[in-house]
Amino acid sequence: MAPTAGARAFNAGELDALLQALRAEGWTLAGPRIRDGAIVYDEIGGAAELPAGWTDEQAPGRYRLRERDDRALFGYAVGPHAWKKYLFPPSERLWTAVRSGRDVGVSEEQAEPPPLAFIGVRACELAAIAVQDRVFLGGERADASYRRRRENVLIVAVQCGEAGGNCFCVSMGTGPAAASGYDIALTELVSGGHRFHARAGSERGARLLSRIETRAATGDDEEAVRALLARAGGRMGRTLDTRGLPQLLQANLEHRRWDEVAGRCLACSNCTLACPTCFCSAQEDVPDLAHARSERWRRWDSCFTGDFSYLHGGSVRASIRSRYRQWLTHKLSAWHEQFGSCGCVGCGRCITWCPVGIDLTEDVAAIRSGAGAAQQERREQDT
Ligand code: SF4
Ligand code: SF4
H helices within 138-213, ranges in order? Predict the structure, then answer.
């Protein structure tokens, strides 16, 4: 078949050469690897540490690894980690104040983060990074720490060939194809010879691809990529009807579904910590005992905790009902006004990692159909 202009292809064995080329340029590699029974993002040294031959099975409140019958390196959906742990770390020092006599000197954190190459970023995760870019870099005052980290990142995306049981990126228009925001977009093709289709999204991506042994992608390669993406897109575990969603939620702030969910929600905050777009944080001052030095730290927080909305005299959102409603209406409704897009990219992590399997797609469907009210009435009749 005739080669396709621009796109390249290479044998799977050549992936390590790409990773080593990145390391030779000074990039630290962060990518998927197996740890504690899950596929997590961590520092990797090369392709040998990728989760070859493993996939994940996901359902509400459930995650299991399972062996595949091939040696696919990226044959899973997404794990519990999001890339935000690198761009917006769970805890970081913002500044240090040191007292010397009657003077106090304040020094902001200025350390340059190490250059990081993200390996295996999914399409929904590219969308999530774009969402957090708007949150941290948009507006009048950009977040200096986020900007330093973001400017030091190179992205190798890998388009999904499998859809997880809780994925709904098709509903959110964020996947499974990687649209933008990457340096290189790979697609792993296993049948017909284990190989990768590669598309450069930036000049440095193109330069990197030129450093390994590739060939021009053929029409067969392109057709295989199209078929793979169509298959993944057709097998989403979940769907979310987004028509008029912001208005729907705002019109149903007293819907009985909120009570029904509150009866199950543990307010554990797992969903917000696993979510790739949630960005709430708290700041803490940590003085030493001699009052000579104090540090300010920023830590991930969650709208599910009572403390998060604590104002003078008490918490604004005292009930779990009000916290869950705040989370969902912010994500799917108010986020549009605040940041110009939806706050959900359809990755399904909040469903998988919720210990009681609360599923936002079910909640929205129930509110849309009135099923929440019907369920509540049934419960009341049963008691
Ligand atoms: S709300 Fe849930 S599905 Fe949406 S981006 Fe966050 S974790 Fe993923
Ligand atoms: S929805 Fe689930 S994960 Fe989120 S706070 Fe409630 S119980 Fe925890």
Answer: 144-150, 169-172, 203-209
Number of domains present in the structure of the chain: 2
Alpha carbon of 283 to those of 113, 294, 308, 324: distances in Å? 21, 13, 11, 23
Give the closest residue to 164 by CA, choosing from 241, 69, 55, 37: 55
Q: Which residues are registered as beta bridge partners of 93?
A: 297
Range of the domain at 148: 3-233
Cα(128) to centroid of ligand 1, in Å?
A: 9
Closest C-alpha among 298, 267, 305, 306 to residue 281:
298
- 48 shares its domain with 189: yes
Note the pLDDT of residue 378: 47
CA distance 276 to 239: 19
Residue 77 has pLDDT above 80, yes or no: yes
Same structural domain, 229 and 340: no
Pick the ligand that lies closest to the CA of residue 358: 2
Structure tokens at 333: 């409704």
- List residues near ligand 2 (CB under 6 A): 265-271, 304, 354-356, 358
pTM across the whole model: 0.93
How far is 141 from 118, CA to CA, in rounded Å? 26
Last residue of a domain, one of 173, 202, 233: 233
For atom 6 of ligand 2, the residue with the nearest CA is 265
What is the CA(340)–ligand 2 centre distance, in A? 26
**Among residues 178, 202, 233, which one ends one of the domains?**
233
- The mean of the pLDDT values for the chain is 94
